[in-house]
Amino acid sequence: MLNAEIMARYELAKDWRAAGFFETENHRQISHAVRAGLGTGR
Predict the structure, then answer these.
(1) What is the Cα–Cα distance from 6 to 25, expressed in whole angstroms?
(2) Are 2 and 12 in contact (CB under 8 A)?
(3) pLDDT for position 42
(4) What is the greatest pairwise CA distance in the chain?
(5) Number of domains composing the chain
(6) What are phi and psi of 25, to 5 degrees?
(7) What is the pLDDT of residue 17?
(8) pLDDT-based confidence at 1, cuts 50/70/90?
(9) Which pLDDT belongs to residue 14?
(10) How far is it, in rounded angstroms, from Cα 1 to Cα 11?
(11) What is the pTM of this model?
(12) Rounded to whole angstroms, how far apart are CA atoms 1 and 10?
């Protein structure tokens, strides 16, 4: 849980755990590269 002072400083409305996850194109590309690297033993 984030400290109330930190949340106020960065103007965060929700605790990160309650914010949810939204996959971006960049995240999708990194995930693909990691899976491909693991599959080839790199």
Answers:
(1) 29
(2) yes
(3) 57
(4) 46
(5) 1
(6) -60, -40
(7) 75
(8) low
(9) 79
(10) 15
(11) 0.44
(12) 15
Containing domain of residue 9, as a range?
4-40
User: What are 4-34's pLDDT values in tens digits?
Assistant: 898 899 888 877 777 777 889 999 999 999 9
Whole-number Å distance between alpha carbons of 6 and 12: 8
The pair of structure tokens assigned to 26 is 């960049």
12 φ/ψ sector (left φ>0, alpha ψ -120 to 50, else beta): beta
Q: In this structure, which amino acid lies at residue 1?
A: M
3-state SS of the chain? CCCHHHHHHCCCCCCHHHHCCCCCHHHHHHHHHHHHHHHHCC
